[in-house]
Design brief:
mainly alpha, binds zinc ion
Length: 256
């Protein structure tokens, strides 16, 4: 039975991953999520039902558009697969519970941000508001109205911390060091992960971003150092969510 559920969650993840691809590409451009329906960006060929099956369509068509044979970016099936794995892991870790639904909404938001912020350097407000409200409602269902004050504290502490870092960064680099979206993102991190782990995600994101940025800089060799921080924050939060790491473990690890 366990395996059955794992597979079901994995398949749901594939399907949702395919949808999040669309959301991540279209929402920052204020494009409709439904119209036009999925099509080849090269020849505008409308995708039929057999071309919309996550991962499998890509494999069956050899990674090419059925109509014009243009190459489809490998990113799409990899992202779908990744979302499938994340959904299955969340089921495995949380079991069927309200916490599991909170984790699914949170992870979905992180996955969409990874795309939209990486492509356009935009974290859509609509996404933050929608997911934030949904998570808050789920949290109230579990903990009642009493959780509002501690949740508010959890949201505001990492928000102010990153705002402070941004202001310092702006002064040091004499330009905008971080987007407003990254700072607003802290409100939702705090809501789900608590303020301590949210602060830790900032440190973890910086550690992930540093080597990646250096490598990307070498490849692209552009002098435009404007780089999105949101995808790294999101990856860091996803790691913390899936490992369910707590602050005591981190402090212990760091030798405190
Ligand atoms: Zn085509």
């Amino acid at each position: 039975m366990e395996l059955y559920y794992l597979i079901v969650f994995f398949i749901f993840g594939l399907i949702f991953g395919s949808f999040y691809n669309v959301v991540g590409y279209r929402l920052p451009n204020n494009m409709s999520l439904i119209n036009p329906s999925s099509h080849c960006p090269k020849c505008n060929h409308k995708l039929g039902p057999f071309e919309l099956i996550p991962v499998f369509s890509y494999l069956l068509q050899g990674g090419k558009c059925k109509n014009c044979k243009a190459k489809i970016a490998i990113f799409y099936p990899i992202f779908e697969l990744f979302t499938g794995i994340v959904f299955a892991l969340i089921y495995k870790i949380f079991g069927i519970s309200v916490e599991m639904f909170i984790a699914l909404v949170f992870a979905s938001m992180l996955l969409i941000i990874m795309i939209s912020d990486f492509l356009y350097m935009i974290i859509p407000d609509e996404l933050l508001i929608f997911c934030g409200l949904l998570i808050l409602i789920l949290k109230i269902i579990v903990g009642g109205i009493d959780i509002l004050l501690p949740t508010f504290m959890n949201m505001i502490i990492p928000f102010i911390a990153l705002l402070f870092i941004k202001l310092l960064g702006d002064k040091a680099f004499k330009r905008e060091s971080m987007g407003g979206g990254d700072i607003k993102l802290m409100l939702i991190f705090g809501m789900v992960l608590g303020w301590q782990i949210s602060l830790f995600t900032i440190v973890l994101a910086a550690f992930i971003a540093l080597p990646v940025t250096l490598i990307l800089d070498k490849i692209k060799s552009n002098n435009n150092h404007e780089l999105p921080f949101g995808p790294y924050l999101s990856l860091a939060a996803l790691i913390c969510l899936l490992t369910r790491v707590d602050i005591m473990t981190i402090l212990h690890f760091l030798g405190f």
